[in-house]
TrEMBL record:
The lineage of its organism: Eukaryota, Viridiplantae, Streptophyta, Embryophyta, Tracheophyta. This is Uncharacterized protein. It comes from Arctium lappa.
Length: 357
């Protein structure tokens, strides 16, 4: 833990420190990365809770400094690479326990109508009337030329502050998504894997994931997991994404290769669970084995009640994660919807084949 965090710990309340650690790290990032990193923290609802319970337990020593009792083991020994825990501790995904899973016709999960949005800073219009409906259990893919508005659409859905909605409606699980704060959207079950995942120096993956997971459990009224219980919960997830346990000791995305960052995004998804996972170019920068691992993990996470919206340029991802619908986005709206045959045509003929009615 570096000096600024220790200093901060001395002026923080006991419960306040917990979420100041990632926040401090974000504030140390270059300005260009800050809003993305804040969005990442908001993904987990970790910056707005008025009094989050501490993951790190600590107490005042006689010398007036804080004594941390993060765990019985020093940080570098907390997740040895060979660590295997066969625990039967409470390890259900919050969304598993929240889902109805009770049969019946699939419910409408997301309904976007005539959505328009501009860039907050310049007022430039990017989304020009997006319409999209996603039912529980469906996999949708959005394809489209560079700059057509795919990532903007994803970021608008999760409430990214760079964009302002100027019209239309978005209903998620029956609620007006546009009225919800970014972290509430995340806690409600919306997850966006970033095209360029941000690094958060000074915050370990394990602390970050446990904090995020417990934030979601709190929201759902479930008891939080302590570090040992969290081991039990996360170990199968690591195997699912084929990530070594020592990744948990490393700072969030710091020094990760492009492919490792993408795997880490899917690990976050596996840990948090999500009713709607939006995967923005999750295939970019992945070698073929990594793509297979990531796709396998995404498929394993599918249940009859959750859905995936993936943004991609390439058909090869769609061979691993088979979509029910493919949409073409052009100039900030969805102009065509079909099945895998759209991707086949695109591969052969390019976007000119999509411009005919
Ligand atoms: N924060 C921003 N500031 C300025 N311009 C932006 C911002 N966000 C998006 N844009 C612009 O909006 C347009 C759509 O961008 P977006 O990233 O949504 O496209 P995309 O379809 O995801 O493209 P790609 O396939 O290349 O990832 C682009 O012209 C982009 O430069």
């Amino acid at each position: 833990m570096d000096a600024s965090v220790v200093l901060q710990s001395k002026i923080s309340s006991v419960t306040g420190l917990f979420y100041r650690i990632p926040l401090l790290s974000v504030l140390r990032l270059p300005k260009i990365h800050r809003s993305s990193a804040m969005a990442l923290l908001h993904r987990f609802g970790c910056c707005s809770s008025p009094s989050p319970p501490p993951l790190l337990s600590f107490k005042q020593s006689t010398s007036n400094s804080m004594l941390f009792t993060v765990s019985a083991l020093p940080r570098h020994r907390r997740f040895p690479p060979s660590f295997r825990l066969t625990a039967t501790l409470a390890a259900e995904s919050p969304t598993d326990s929240a889902s109805n899973g009770g049969g019946g016709p699939p419910k409408l999960l997301l309904e976007v109508k005539d959505l328009t949005a501009v860039i907050s800073e310049s007022g430039k219009e990017i989304l020009n009337g997006v319409n999209l409906s996603i039912y529980e259990g469906e996999i949708h893919a959005i394809m489209g030329k560079n700059g057509s508005g795919k990532s903007t659409f994803a970021k608008v859905l999760v409430g990214h502050r760079d964009y302002q909605v100027t019209g239309g409606s978005v209903v998620f699980k029956g609620e007006n998504l546009l009225e919800m704060e970014a972290e509430d959207r995340s806690l409600a079950g919306l997850f966006l894997s970033f095209q360029s995942p941000v690094e958060i120096p000074g915050v370990s993956n394990s602390d970050f994931l446990q904090m995020a997971y417990n934030a979601r459990r709190r929201k759902l009224g479930l008891p939080e997991l302590d570090p040992l219980q969290f081991y039990g919960y996360i170990m199968p997830k690591l195997e699912m994404v084929n990530i070594k346990a020592d990744f948990l000791n490393r700072n969030v995305n710091e020094g990760f290769s492009g492919g490792e960052k993408k795997r880490n995004e899917i690990l976050q998804l596996a840990v948090l669970g999500a009713e709607l996972a939006i995967l923005d170019e999750i295939d970019s920068g992945l070698d073929v084995d990594a793509l297979r691992d990531v796709a396998k993990a995404v498929n394993a996470l599918m249940t009859p009640t959750n859905s995936v919206l993936m943004i991609t340029h390439y058909r090869r991802l769609l061979e691993f994660i088979k979509p029910d619908y493919i949409h073409i986005m052009d100039d900030g709206r969805i102009t065509k919807t079909g099945d895998i045959s759209i991707a086949n045509i695109l591969e052969k003929e390019g976007y000119k084949a999509m411009s005919t009615p």
